[in-house]
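Example 4.3 (complexes with small molecules)
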Amino acid sequence: MESQKQFKRRFSFEFFPPKTDQGKEKLQAVRNQLAEVNPDFFSVTFGAGGSTRDRTIETVLNLHKQGISTAPHLSCVGGTRAEIGELLDVYKENGINRIVALRGDLPSGMGASGELRYANELVEFIREHSGDHFNLEVAAYPEFHPQARNAEEDLKNFARKVQAGANSAITQYFFNADSYFYFIDRLEKMGITIPVVPGIMPIVNFSSLVRFSDMCGAEIPRWIRKQLEAYGDDSDSIRKFGEDVITEMCEKLLKAGAPGLHFYTLNQAEPSISIWKNLGISDREKIAF
Ligand code: FAD
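Answer. The structure with flavin-adenine dinucleotide bound is encoded below.
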């Protein structure tokens, strides 16, 4: 973990772009609550294949102009260089200076994979098109990407993104801090020393967590799964247990030198804010670990 300790810690919250007016109002309220704790930035997801293109742009620009730096996610699958270039220009013109660059997953049955096949090609293209204007974040997988041929190949593919010009990375969520420590150790042995910020998924709903984790290859440890199962419909107990488990994991990560945390909020303020407050992050200078 030595490589990670040199970086200034940064803390961020991720949203998805709302579809309805009601969703927009809710996100505005969530934004206001989260803005109070003064995060370093917000980020907004992008539906692979461009399905949320306009909503992502609208949400990013709206959040950004309200004073907290906001980073769009941008996935290349299903897109052309011209379309991606156009999007980069819109963001640059509007003062956006950070992008989360991804391959994305095309929904099944949705056309060809596009001109850029992998995230390393997207990073390369962004550097060609926009030079060093954007700070580029890429995805990292401490438990390895579900489609990776094997762990070694996945690490090499991560290295390609760094070689192409990524500045830092955000991880897929995980519930086992050791997978993150091991991942960083492997990167250090490969000479890769960019900041790799743990992605944190608050636990609020058991069935959606299981569905989501199966899809993205995040393992829910047996002891957590069993305890959540035992709570059944008791959502207060699930929330409380989830908050304790995630707070403890975050403490462990920060103590070991993780360079910040990125919260997958699912457009809810309360679960992330409770963990944030437990950790005392707002007072970054005095943070105990
Ligand atoms: P890549 O880095 O391209 O890797 C994908 C797979 O291909 C891996 O198995 C890798 O080992 C392999 N691979 C990579 N490069 C090569 C190569 N050159 N040759 C052969 N194999 C290769 N999805 C969305 O649709 N929208 C979002 O907004 C979004 N936000 C995300 C944010 C974060 C922080 C994370 C962790 C994930 C996010 N995702 C999002 C999900 C992501 O798009 C999927 O996990 C997707 O399957 C992989 O994207 P990637 O950028 O990691 O792809």
